[in-house]
Each structure stands twice: as structure tokens, then as C-alpha cells.
Design goal:
Blueprint: H1 2-86, E1 94-99, H2 107-115, E2 119-126, H3 135-149, H4 158-172, H5 176-184, E3 188-192, E4 199-203, H6 213-226, E5 231-234, H7 244-248, E6 253-255, H8 261-272, E7 277-278, H9 299-306
Parallel strand pairs: 1-2, 1-4, 4-5, 5-6, 6-7
Antiparallel strand pairs: 2-3
Helix pairs in contact: 2-8, 4-6
Protein name: Copper transport outer membrane protein, MctB
Organism: Thermoanaerobacter thermohydrosulfuricus WC1
Pfam family, one: MctB
């Protein structure tokens, strides 16, 4: 009797286990079906999104091509109109350009000045600060300056002393031997003739966080202002570290996009007398001046008056 009860118990248990296994297998099969359907739906949705993105990408490519064509047309228009627009605006104005870094090339700005009729008397490129050479080079420079000017030059303020004297030499034409010494010893590149300067353009900006705007650019600006010669500060729009705010504190006009025609037009307008801070950066008060000066009030008259 006991054996039969155990048999029934085992049989019933086996049946329930079998049912459980069957239910589990059925649930798993049904779950796989659901999962497979969900996976298929997701794949279809992703494929549709991918097709939509391809379509959008093709549309954007077409838009970019059209915009590039329009930019090309505008550039051609600017190249034709710009020389006519600025012709003779700066006739008779003698300009000295001082580039305080050799990281950028300002050939476009120079060409714009020539198209406006200006004469570029000199171009100075300061290659590096004057206190970064080896100890012997720095000492030789200090000795040269001390002998020439009869003063004791402090190495701590070497940059400020050199650029102040250099700016004076560039603008007035005095101390040409200083220019020759700095050029011969690789501190600067200098082309042109010093002196006879109506206007100074200081071109700065840097891609180096540890720049020399305080020890080189600012003393140059101060010295030129002491000589009562107009000065404007410029830089390219792609400089990582802008000098414009430092220039503005010296109360001079600035252009922060001088590499393009808009900035070059602004420069010529400023040199005619439209003072202000122009360009595309936050430091600018507007993109460009609102109008050219009347021909009768052009810079060759205003700059001459500023020297009286």
C-alpha cells in the first residue's frame, strides 16, 4: 500500500514537472517570437531613419554646393567692386606696418592699402621677445642699448625699452642703427625706409597663450601716441588669443577681421577718420563703419592736422 502511494506521488510530481517544463518551453518560444518581432521592427525603424538621414545629407550637400557657388559669386563681385570703392581713399598717406608676431601673413591687408592709394613706407615683423635668447645674446643687446642711449637697461624691462625705441625709430627715421642691429641679429625683419610716417598699423593676435601683448604691443602703441601719429590695431579673425581688448584699453581703433575684404574696407574707413572697434568678435561695436568719409575730409588731411 505504501509503495503504491509513493508511486502515485512520484507520478503526480512527474506530471507537474513535465507541465512546468512544457509551460516554460512554450513561454520561451513565445518570448523569442515577440523578441524577434520587436527586433525586426527596430531594424526596420533604423533602416528608415538611415534612409532619412541619407536624404537629409544629400539635401545639405546640395545646399552647401549652392551656397559655395553664391560665395564664389560674391567674392568675384567684391574683387571687382573693392578696388573701385577704395580707389584714391588713402592717396598720399604714408603707412608703417608693425607686426608683433610672425604667426600670420598680412599680404591681403597690404594689397588693400595699395589699392586705396597708400604708400607702405616700412614693414616690421618682430620675430620674438627680446629677452628669450641665450644669455650672451641678451647681454650683448643690453650692452648695445646701454652704450647707445647712455642708460642702464634692466633685463626685466628689456622688451618695453627695445620696442619703445624701435617704434620711435620706425616713425621718425632716427636711430636707424638700432633697426639695423635688431635686423642683423635676427630679432626683427625690416623692409622699407623708416620715418616719414603718417599712420601706423600694429598687427597682433596670437595662437600662443603666453603672448607678449603687454610687454611689446602696448609700449609700441604708447610710444606712437606720444609722437602724435595715428595708430590702429588689427588682427585676423582666426587668432586663438585676441589682442583687441588690450588695444581698446589704449583707446585706439581696432579691426579684428583684417584678412577679409570687409575688414580691409573697415581699415580704410578707419584710416579716413571713422574711429571705432569693428569686426566680428564680441569686442567689436559693429561689423564696420556706417559710411565712408567725404572725399574732402579724407585722412591725408585729418592725419596731417593731427600732427599739428
Amino acid at each position: 500500500m505504501n509503495i503504491n502511494i509513493k508511486y502515485y506521488v512520484l507520478t503526480i510530481a512527474s506530471i507537474f514537472i513535465a507541465l512546468g517544463i512544457g509551460i516554460f518551453i512554450g513561454f520561451m518560444l513565445d518570448g523569442q517570437k515577440v523578441f524577434s518581432e520587436q527586433q525586426t521592427a527596430i531594424i526596420n525603424e533604423l533602416e528608415q531613419k538611415f534612409k532619412d538621414l541619407q536624404t537629409e545629407n544629400n539635401n545639405l550637400k546640395n545646399t552647401v554646393q549652392e551656397l559655395n557657388k553664391q560665395i564664389g559669386y560674391y567674392n568675384q563681385y567684391h574683387q571687382i567692386i573693392f578696388p573701385e570703392l577704395v580707389a584714391d581713399r588713402l592717396t598720399g598717406v604714408k603707412v608703417a606696418i608693425i607686426e608683433t608676431t610672425n604667426e600670420f601673413i598680412y599680404s591681403g591687408m597690404r594689397n588693400a592699402l595699395l589699392k586705396a592709394g597708400a604708400t607702405i613706407e616700412s614693414i616690421t615683423v618682430i620675430k620674438d621677445s627680446f629677452d628669450t635668447g641665450d644669455e650672451l645674446e641678451v647681454q650683448n643687446l643690453i650692452n648695445f642699448l646701454s652704450n647707445k642711449y647712455g642708460v642702464t637697461v634692466d633685463e626685466k624691462h628689456l622688451n618695453e625699452f627695445v620696442v619703445s625705441k624701435l617704434a620711435n625709430a620706425i616713425v621718425t627715421g632716427q636711430d636707424v642703427d638700432l633697426i639695423n642691429y635688431l635686423k642683423t641679429n635676427g630679432y626683427i625683419d625690416f623692409t622699407g625706409i623708416p620715418g616719414n610716417t603718417d599712420f601706423v598699423i600694429i598687427a597682433g593676435g596670437s595662437n600662443n597663450k603666453d603672448n607678449n601683448v603687454a610687454s611689446i604691443d602696448i609700449p609700441i602703441i604708447k610710444q606712437v601716441k606720444l609722437l602724435n601719429v595715428p595708430i590702429v590695431g588689427v588682427e585676423q579673425s582666426d587668432t586663438k588669443y585676441s589682442y583687441i581688448d588690450a588695444y581698446k584699453k589704449q583707446h585706439i581703433s581696432t579691426i579684428d577681421n583684417v584678412e577679409d575684404i570687409i575688414g580691409q574696407t573697415s581699415l580704410i574707413m578707419v584710416m579716413e577718420g571713422k574711429e571705432g572697434n569693428y569686426g566680428i568678435k564680441q569686442s567689436a561695436m559693429s561689423l564696420m563703419p556706417d559710411s565712408f568719409m567725404n572725399t574732402d575730409n579724407s585722412t591725408h588731411n585729418s592725419s596731417a592736422n593731427s600732427k599739428k
